[in-house]
Amino acid sequence: MVKLTIVGRLSDGLCLAKGPSSLNEEHENFSFYKRQGEFILREISRGALPPSKMTIRADHHCFNYMVENGIAFITLCDSSYPRKLAFHYLQDLQKEFENFDSSLIKKVTRPYCFIKFDGVIGNIRKQYIDTRTQANLSKLNANRKQDLDIATENLSEIIERWRYSEILERPSTSTSQAVSPIWCSPRLEVIAMKWTPITVTIFVVTVLLWATIVHTDDNFMILN
Protein backbone atom coordinates (compact mmCIF):
# COMPACT_ATOMS: atom_id res chain seq x y z
CA MET A 1 0.00 0.00 0.00
CA VAL A 2 1.08 3.57 -0.70
CA LYS A 3 1.38 4.97 2.82
CA LEU A 4 3.02 8.35 2.43
CA THR A 5 3.78 10.77 -0.40
CA ILE A 6 6.04 13.82 -0.46
CA VAL A 7 6.53 16.19 -3.39
CA GLY A 8 9.49 18.53 -3.04
CA ARG A 9 11.56 21.12 -4.85
CA LEU A 10 15.21 20.26 -5.46
CA SER A 11 16.56 23.79 -5.73
CA ASP A 12 16.16 24.34 -1.99
CA GLY A 13 14.86 20.99 -0.66
CA LEU A 14 11.47 22.49 0.23
CA CYS A 15 8.54 20.08 0.69
CA LEU A 16 5.63 21.34 -1.42
CA ALA A 17 2.84 18.80 -0.82
CA LYS A 18 2.19 15.48 0.89
CA GLY A 19 -1.44 14.57 0.29
CA PRO A 20 -3.37 12.08 2.44
CA SER A 21 -1.63 9.24 4.24
CA SER A 22 -2.69 5.80 5.40
CA LEU A 23 -0.84 6.54 8.63
CA ASN A 24 -2.56 8.48 11.37
CA GLU A 25 -0.82 11.87 11.47
CA GLU A 26 -1.00 11.86 15.26
CA HIS A 27 0.76 8.51 15.43
CA GLU A 28 4.50 8.57 16.11
CA ASN A 29 5.17 6.36 13.07
CA PHE A 30 3.80 9.05 10.76
CA SER A 31 6.22 11.69 12.08
CA PHE A 32 9.07 9.18 11.97
CA TYR A 33 8.57 8.22 8.32
CA LYS A 34 7.75 11.80 7.35
CA ARG A 35 11.10 12.95 8.75
CA GLN A 36 12.83 10.16 6.84
CA GLY A 37 11.13 11.24 3.61
CA GLU A 38 12.17 14.85 4.20
CA PHE A 39 15.73 13.70 4.88
CA ILE A 40 15.78 11.81 1.56
CA LEU A 41 14.55 14.95 -0.22
CA ARG A 42 17.37 17.01 1.31
CA GLU A 43 19.94 14.39 0.31
CA ILE A 44 18.68 14.44 -3.29
CA SER A 45 18.72 18.24 -3.21
CA ARG A 46 22.36 18.43 -2.10
CA GLY A 47 23.44 15.84 -4.67
CA ALA A 48 24.16 12.98 -2.26
CA LEU A 49 21.58 10.73 -3.98
CA PRO A 50 21.00 10.09 -7.71
CA PRO A 51 18.80 12.76 -9.34
CA SER A 52 16.74 10.20 -11.25
CA LYS A 53 15.13 7.14 -9.63
CA MET A 54 15.91 5.04 -6.60
CA THR A 55 14.49 2.59 -4.07
CA ILE A 56 15.55 2.97 -0.44
CA ARG A 57 14.84 0.16 2.00
CA ALA A 58 13.77 1.21 5.50
CA ASP A 59 12.86 -1.62 7.88
CA HIS A 60 9.72 -3.30 6.46
CA HIS A 61 9.07 -0.42 4.08
CA CYS A 62 10.56 1.09 0.94
CA PHE A 63 10.91 4.68 -0.17
CA ASN A 64 10.68 5.00 -3.94
CA TYR A 65 11.43 8.28 -5.64
CA MET A 66 11.80 9.82 -9.07
CA VAL A 67 12.96 13.27 -10.14
CA GLU A 68 11.66 15.27 -13.10
CA ASN A 69 12.29 18.93 -13.97
CA GLY A 70 13.69 19.79 -10.57
CA ILE A 71 10.83 18.19 -8.62
CA ALA A 72 11.18 15.04 -6.51
CA PHE A 73 8.26 12.65 -6.06
CA ILE A 74 8.73 10.36 -3.06
CA THR A 75 6.45 7.62 -1.78
CA LEU A 76 6.60 5.18 1.12
CA CYS A 77 5.19 1.70 0.57
CA ASP A 78 5.19 -1.66 2.29
CA SER A 79 8.20 -3.71 1.24
CA SER A 80 5.77 -6.24 -0.29
CA TYR A 81 4.13 -3.61 -2.51
CA PRO A 82 5.13 -4.07 -6.18
CA ARG A 83 7.87 -1.61 -7.01
CA LYS A 84 6.64 -1.40 -10.57
CA LEU A 85 3.28 -0.08 -9.37
CA ALA A 86 4.98 2.38 -7.02
CA PHE A 87 6.82 3.98 -9.92
CA HIS A 88 3.67 4.00 -12.07
CA TYR A 89 2.08 5.94 -9.21
CA LEU A 90 4.96 8.42 -9.16
CA GLN A 91 4.80 8.83 -12.94
CA ASP A 92 1.09 9.63 -12.73
CA LEU A 93 1.83 12.25 -10.08
CA GLN A 94 4.54 13.77 -12.23
CA LYS A 95 2.24 14.02 -15.27
CA GLU A 96 -0.44 15.78 -13.23
CA PHE A 97 2.11 18.09 -11.65
CA GLU A 98 3.15 19.34 -15.10
CA ASN A 99 -0.33 20.84 -15.51
CA PHE A 100 0.42 23.43 -12.84
CA ASP A 101 2.07 26.76 -13.60
CA SER A 102 5.78 26.53 -12.77
CA SER A 103 5.88 30.20 -11.74
CA LEU A 104 3.24 29.43 -9.10
CA ILE A 105 5.37 26.60 -7.73
CA LYS A 106 8.41 28.86 -7.47
CA LYS A 107 6.46 31.28 -5.28
CA VAL A 108 5.92 28.68 -2.54
CA THR A 109 8.10 29.63 0.44
CA ARG A 110 6.71 27.52 3.30
CA PRO A 111 6.69 23.72 3.64
CA TYR A 112 3.59 21.85 2.45
CA CYS A 113 1.82 25.01 1.29
CA PHE A 114 1.08 23.81 -2.25
CA ILE A 115 -2.31 22.57 -1.07
CA LYS A 116 -3.76 22.50 -4.59
CA PHE A 117 -1.78 19.36 -5.32
CA ASP A 118 -2.82 17.52 -2.15
CA GLY A 119 -6.19 16.64 -3.68
CA VAL A 120 -4.51 15.34 -6.83
CA ILE A 121 -2.28 13.09 -4.74
CA GLY A 122 -5.32 11.73 -2.91
CA ASN A 123 -7.22 10.92 -6.11
CA ILE A 124 -4.30 9.15 -7.76
CA ARG A 125 -3.39 7.28 -4.58
CA LYS A 126 -6.87 5.70 -4.46
CA GLN A 127 -6.17 4.04 -7.81
CA TYR A 128 -3.14 2.23 -6.38
CA ILE A 129 -4.47 1.00 -3.03
CA ASP A 130 -5.69 -2.32 -4.43
CA THR A 131 -3.00 -4.03 -6.49
CA ARG A 132 -5.51 -6.57 -7.86
CA THR A 133 -7.63 -4.19 -9.91
CA GLN A 134 -7.66 -4.80 -13.64
CA ALA A 135 -5.83 -1.55 -14.34
CA ASN A 136 -3.05 -2.34 -11.89
CA LEU A 137 -2.72 -5.95 -13.04
CA SER A 138 -2.33 -4.70 -16.61
CA LYS A 139 0.47 -2.38 -15.50
CA LEU A 140 2.20 -5.23 -13.68
CA ASN A 141 1.90 -7.62 -16.61
CA ALA A 142 3.10 -5.13 -19.21
CA ASN A 143 6.74 -5.75 -20.19
CA ARG A 144 7.13 -8.41 -17.50
CA LYS A 145 10.46 -9.49 -18.92
CA GLN A 146 11.83 -5.99 -18.63
CA ASP A 147 13.30 -5.45 -15.17
CA LEU A 148 13.34 -2.04 -13.59
CA ASP A 149 16.88 -0.70 -13.83
CA ILE A 150 16.71 1.22 -10.58
CA ALA A 151 19.37 1.47 -7.87
CA THR A 152 18.51 0.13 -4.41
CA GLU A 153 20.13 1.06 -1.12
CA ASN A 154 19.45 0.79 2.61
CA LEU A 155 18.44 3.95 4.43
CA SER A 156 20.87 3.10 7.25
CA GLU A 157 23.78 3.27 4.79
CA ILE A 158 22.65 6.67 3.51
CA ILE A 159 22.36 8.02 7.07
CA GLU A 160 25.82 6.67 7.93
CA ARG A 161 27.29 8.33 4.85
CA TRP A 162 25.58 11.61 5.80
CA ARG A 163 27.03 11.44 9.33
CA TYR A 164 30.51 10.83 7.95
CA SER A 165 30.22 13.83 5.59
CA GLU A 166 29.07 15.98 8.52
CA ILE A 167 32.19 15.01 10.48
CA LEU A 168 34.44 15.84 7.53
CA GLU A 169 32.79 19.22 7.00
CA ARG A 170 32.97 20.13 10.70
CA PRO A 171 35.75 22.71 11.30
CA SER A 172 38.70 21.20 13.15
CA THR A 173 41.05 23.28 15.31
CA SER A 174 44.02 21.06 14.60
CA THR A 175 43.57 21.08 10.84
CA SER A 176 42.40 24.67 10.39
CA GLN A 177 45.55 26.15 11.89
CA ALA A 178 48.38 26.72 9.46
CA VAL A 179 51.41 24.63 10.35
CA SER A 180 54.75 26.39 10.10
CA PRO A 181 57.21 24.63 7.78
CA ILE A 182 59.98 25.53 10.27
CA TRP A 183 58.49 24.23 13.51
CA CYS A 184 56.44 21.37 11.97
CA SER A 185 53.66 21.61 14.56
CA PRO A 186 51.38 24.34 15.96
CA ARG A 187 52.49 23.57 19.53
CA LEU A 188 56.19 24.06 18.80
CA GLU A 189 55.37 27.22 16.89
CA VAL A 190 53.51 28.67 19.89
CA ILE A 191 56.45 27.86 22.19
CA ALA A 192 58.89 29.40 19.75
CA MET A 193 56.82 32.58 19.38
CA LYS A 194 56.66 32.92 23.16
CA TRP A 195 60.34 32.35 24.01
CA THR A 196 62.21 33.59 20.94
CA PRO A 197 61.86 37.33 21.78
CA ILE A 198 63.03 36.66 25.36
CA THR A 199 66.00 34.63 24.13
CA VAL A 200 66.98 37.33 21.63
CA THR A 201 66.76 40.02 24.32
CA ILE A 202 68.99 38.05 26.71
CA PHE A 203 71.48 37.43 23.90
CA VAL A 204 71.64 41.13 22.97
CA VAL A 205 72.08 42.19 26.60
CA THR A 206 74.84 39.61 27.07
CA VAL A 207 76.69 40.83 23.96
CA LEU A 208 76.42 44.45 25.10
CA LEU A 209 77.73 43.60 28.57
CA TRP A 210 80.58 41.61 27.08
CA ALA A 211 81.45 44.46 24.72
CA THR A 212 81.37 46.95 27.61
CA ILE A 213 83.67 44.78 29.72
CA VAL A 214 86.14 44.30 26.84
CA HIS A 215 86.14 48.03 26.09
CA THR A 216 86.77 48.83 29.77
CA ASP A 217 89.67 46.36 29.94
CA ASP A 218 91.25 47.88 26.80
CA ASN A 219 91.06 51.38 28.26
CA PHE A 220 92.59 50.17 31.53
CA MET A 221 95.51 48.56 29.70
CA ILE A 222 96.16 51.73 27.68
CA LEU A 223 96.24 53.86 30.82
CA ASN A 224 98.75 51.53 32.40
UniProtKB/TrEMBL annotation:
Segments passing through the bilayer: 195-214
Cited CDD domains: Longin (cd14824)
Keyword Coiled coil found: yes
Subcellular location: Endoplasmic reticulum membrane; Golgi apparatus membrane
SUPFAM superfamilies on file: SNARE-like (SSF64356)
MF (Gene Ontology): SNAP receptor activity
InterPro entries: Longin-like_dom_sf (IPR011012), Longin_dom (IPR010908), Sec22 (IPR044565)
Domain Longin residues, every copy: 6-121
Membrane topology type: Single-pass type IV membrane protein
Single biological process term from Gene Ontology: protein transport
Gene Ontology CC annotations of this record: endoplasmic reticulum membrane; Golgi membrane
Keywords on record: Coiled coil, Membrane, Protein transport, Transmembrane, Transmembrane helix, Transport
Family: Belongs to the synaptobrevin family.
Protein name as it appears in the record: 25.3 kDa vesicle transport protein
Originating gene: LOC110767723
